[in-house]
Sequence to fold (737 residues):
Amino acid sequence: MNFFLETLIGGLLAGTLYSLVAIGFVLIYKASGVFNFAQGTMLLFAALTFVSLREQGLSFALALLLTVLVMIVGALLIERLVLRPLVNRSQITLFMATLGLSFIIEGLAQGLMGAQVRALDLGIEDVPLFVGEIMISQFDLIAAGVSALTVAVLALLFNKTRIGVALRAVADDTRAALSLGINLNRIWQIVWAVAGVVGLVAGLLWGARQGVQFSLSLVVLKALPVLIIGGFTSIGGAIVGGLIVGAAENLAEAYIGPLIGGGITPWFAYFLALIFLYIRPSGLFGDRIIERV
Amino acid sequence: MHATLKRRLAAIGLALGACAALVPTVQAANEQFFPLATYRVGAYASSGIPVWAGMIDYLRYINEVEGGINGVKLVWQECETEWTAEKGIECYERFKNGLNGAPVAVYQPNGAPAAYALADKAEADRIPLITLGYGRTEATDGRVFPYNFPAMLTFYSEASAFINYVAEREGGLDKLKGKKIATVYHDSAYGRETQGPLALLAQKYGFENIQIAVADPGNEQAGQWRQVRQLKPDWVFLRTWGVSTPVAIKTAARFGYPVERIVGDIWASSNEDVLPAGEAGKGYLALTPYPGGADFDIHQRIRQHILDTGKSDLKDPKSFGSVYYNSGLVNAAIAVEAIRTAQQHFGNRPLNGEEGRWGLEHLDLNDARLKEIGFLGLMQPLRLSCSDHEGGGAAKVQQWDGQRWNLITDWVQADRATLRPLIDAKAAEYAKEKGVTARDCAAQ
Fold:
């Protein structure tokens, strides 16, 4: 029983990290209907910028602040140079644009800051804590706390500010929002900037665990099943989806893995997502699309 | 319109002229071509960049200080593979006929996917492949694989050297009985390669052989290390690659498994593997056929003639003497020495693939020769032959202290005699499947 509980708790905590990555996708998808393929490389770029600034001797706080500024400037540039010229184009066109963007950011990041692996020390010890006989990771616990805080800040932004109301209006009905005078370009700038900052938080937590390097951009692979399960348009869905994926893949690795040769973590989440697609194609909390024929 | 066309043609002409000016003038008559299949971009760029620096620095050293190999100058050109099979094949096809008349004597695919994909092609084209620390283990049997050279340390030997090191630590091979030894491996052809030899050695010495797979890319391993914690193995053999290594080390620490009981394999033994692990990596052990360190004789020579004169390919001087940089040196030295050996037979001139193979099959790098070329201690004695394309079969064990690797053993030799029947059986199976008639080495 202890083993089961430990696996379950560990999985749920790991799931919060998946949620954080998935939220970056949700933000942009909600505001523009675009699946941002470049979210992974934005995460890599943010973490790489932060580490490079730290290597220059900047303090943690200053490096963090400057990285946030870099991500905001990056969002403004993306909106101005990539999205605005493609406004009113089909979703697949915008998706392809983000695909190209991901390669550009990836190349730029490695070209400007180098391809070598960097260590990232956030000052959080990755040591086991014991509650009775159940082991919990201190790092996962703190990472879950940071994720919860990020979600709380986003909830405040969306629900308690004028910008948030405008964002929700665009998400609900873009044309109606435009007719009310909401500046769509400004909304896109804000959303991409927020997604960049969320990417920074995710990049720092994942980077602290595995080092800051190219493969950091691959953590988005974990976000896709989370989005399918939770829904592409709901931040709450991303959180629940992340928890489900984290718990399910850890339990599966522990109980099913040994029966079929192990190493099932990466594909089990997709297997689960496939089942959800059969049962609930829009995900647990996603908007159901109803079209008049 | 006509003027525009003229301007464009003039611009193209100028551009071509500029390109031609950038390409060094080639006098192919007395030049040997070294094709460099590199990966400077993509997921594994951080591993590759220091390797190419080591290779290029050594080739440059041979040219600048020794005047080439017996007067034959070396020329090289890079081709980006991104560590993929398809681009690896593309590069091989581009390079196999040489460069401006300078022939290819040996080819290094630099990546397991390309090595597997090129194995048959190289046989057909009669170009020897050197796959140091990767590639097909059964290619050790040169009777069946005349043009494949998994030189120095195959995955089988690596597994055996690991078991011999554990035995050394436990007080003898007889003390292995009843021990639990887990292998946490990258779930790929590379990772699964040691399952056969470890099963054989487990049977021979009576230890419990536990195999735990980590699927690519391996950036989340809680499930695997929870299993390790539950099974409580005495030792863990870590056979990961890329990001899965630092994640494994950090996750092991998170689950309270002592890092000084984990021994990484050749592809989990670099600075890039342990640096991201930070404090958790202190005490981590790793097997390597090319240990880290910049105090070997060859480093003094390269520092003096290449590094200090600003001719190094190394962008980050901190990587001088890193495990990957040293692997580049060792790879380049084997190729250079094979050509030197072949020149003794064919004359001091550029050589083709068949002649390169002859050089490899007669390569004998003993301690005296290693001392002469500055590689004593960095490289094990290596003697290849028609029937043995591996040679060596030993590794040193190094330990990470948080800043650098420290060698804690001399060469730990694999039990190659025990493993050879497994290799012969696999080679025979391949020969049967492909209709290959094994060479008679006595007639060579």
